[in-house]
Every structure is written in structure tokens, then in C-alpha cells.
Amino acid sequence: MNIQQLEYIVAVDNHRHFSRAAEASFVTQPTLSMMIQKLEDELGVKIFDRTQSPIEPTDVGRKLIDQARVSLAQIHQIKEIVEEEKGIIKGVFRLAIIPTVSPYLLPKLMQTHREQNTDIRLVISEMTTNQILSGLAKGSIDGGVLATPLHDERMKEIPVYYEKFYAYVSPNERFLYAKSSLEETDLRGAKLWLLDEVHCFRTQILNICNLKTKSIVNSAFTYEAGSIETLINIVDNNNGITVIPEMALNHLTEEQKKNVRFFKDNKPVREISLITRKDFLRERLIEMIEDEIKMSVPLSLQDKSLQKNLVAI
User: Fold this and answer.
1) Phi (first) and psi of residue 242, to 5 degrees
2) pLDDT of residue 222
3) How far apart are CA 231 and CA 234, in angstroms?
4) Nearest to 11 by CA among 51, 68, 96, 85
5) For 248-272, what is each residue's pLDDT tens digit?
6) Cα gap 221→224, rounded to integer Å
7) Is the pLDDT of residue 282 over 50?
8) HSE on the CB side for 106, CA within 13 Å?
């Protein structure tokens, strides 16, 4: 078994086609196929089911490929760690951001990163929390920006900012709209628009309301939507209320800002963190990404005292 063979099985898994995988690996198809065959013979298992179109990994092959991704990522770190010790920070950092953070953080983060003029190339994608955790476990991404704490022993969490939750109320909801601030209990009897179940943001809103998923079925709630922007548009054109994060306020028009209400007592917040696998050892690179994220959000959101009002995921 060698590094090249691991790279070849990952390439085939990426492309699900031997010819395209060979082309992407800059080798001929016979060479790639032969090297994978030798690896299968050495291990005594079939990594790919060649009868499928497109090609699919076998059950054991899936596990081997996932481990190959992790191993390759760790191998590639060796040279990069040495370079960082020499003061050279360069390479690629694959960063995933959850959809309820990406629209508000990403534009400024891209500007900040460009202005820093580093030798780090950021490859950014939008993923749900579960997709980020899966990608980190498999080594297909290097870091994630999402709501924490996750209580996942495999991951290292670096809190980068805290943002309050705000209610966004339709003027048609006359009783609630007349209030200058809301209690969490005000959300329970209202028509509340939520994100769909793949978003941890949804879970946090239910926790603010002190409601369980099962209780929604028989409540006055109406849901689901795919993004916070969609929720805002629904409230604007219908009725009911939704909950939005603080960073979304800057994206509202002056007219829309009239619909925003803060929560009176606890002022619930969410913690946003940069997370990596605990065995990701490029500490200076992580510090650089952490600094760029913090430079991309207001200082008021970096007040650690806000943590006391943290809403569970």
C-alpha cells in the first residue's frame, strides 16, 4: 500500500469513473486500474463494484476510502507543519459554513481575506452542520463555521462570535407588533415560521420557545422554509412571525427594520465557532482563519459575556 494508491481510490470515488479519475490524476487509465487492483489484491477485498454504472464503492470500500481521505489529509499536513515552523504559511484551507451564517459572514470574510494578501487559498462551501461534521471526519474539508457547542469529542471548537436572536413580526400581528419587545412565551401561540429540520437554527428557536418538535404538530405553528431570507419574505407578504440572527439585521431595509423586536429578558444568543478535527495540527493557519473571521464581524458580537444567554442546539 502506498500514498499513490490511496490517492487513486479517492479520485475514483470522486469521479465514479475510472477514465475521468485517471485524467484528474494525470495517469493513464490502465495504470490507475492496475494500481487499484494491486491494492485490492493486497488487502483481499474489492474496493469498488465495477458492475455498477456509475461505479460504486463496496461497503468495505466505503470505509477504506473514508480512512484514505483522513490519512492523505494528515500526510499532507507533515510538510505544511514544517513550513509553518519556518514561518511559511501557505496552501489550501477548505472551509464550510452553515447556511444561517454564510449569507452574513461570507461576503465580509472574502473581503477580509483578500485584503490580508496571504498565501492561503480559501475554498469555501455551504453545508449543514451534519454535512460539516461528516466532511471533517472524512477529511474532505479542513474546518467549519457553525453554531456550538456540539459536545463532539472529535472536534476542537474555537468560539469566534456571539449573536442575539431577534423576533421579526408581521404588522398584521397587531397584538405582538404593538409591543416594543417580546417574551419568549409570545412565540408559542403565534404563527411561527421556521427553517426545515436540517438546520440547527430551527432547534435553537424551539428551545427559545421551550417547545419540543412533537408539540408543533398540534400547535398554531406554520413551517417550513429553506433560508432565513425566505422566512423574512414570508412574514413580509403574509402574517405571523419568525426569528432571525443579529447579523441578518444589516441586510434589512429601513422599512423591514420596523418589524424587528428584541426579546425582553434573557436576550437569547447563539455561539458561532470555527471548528476543526482535534488532529488538525496547523495551529498558525487556524489562528489566521480565526483572526480573519473576527475581523469580519462587529466587535460587539465578540463579547464573551453574552455566553451566559446561550441557547442549546
Assistant:
1) -145, 180
2) 52
3) 5
4) 68
5) 999 999 999 999 999 987 789 999 9
6) 10
7) yes
8) 18
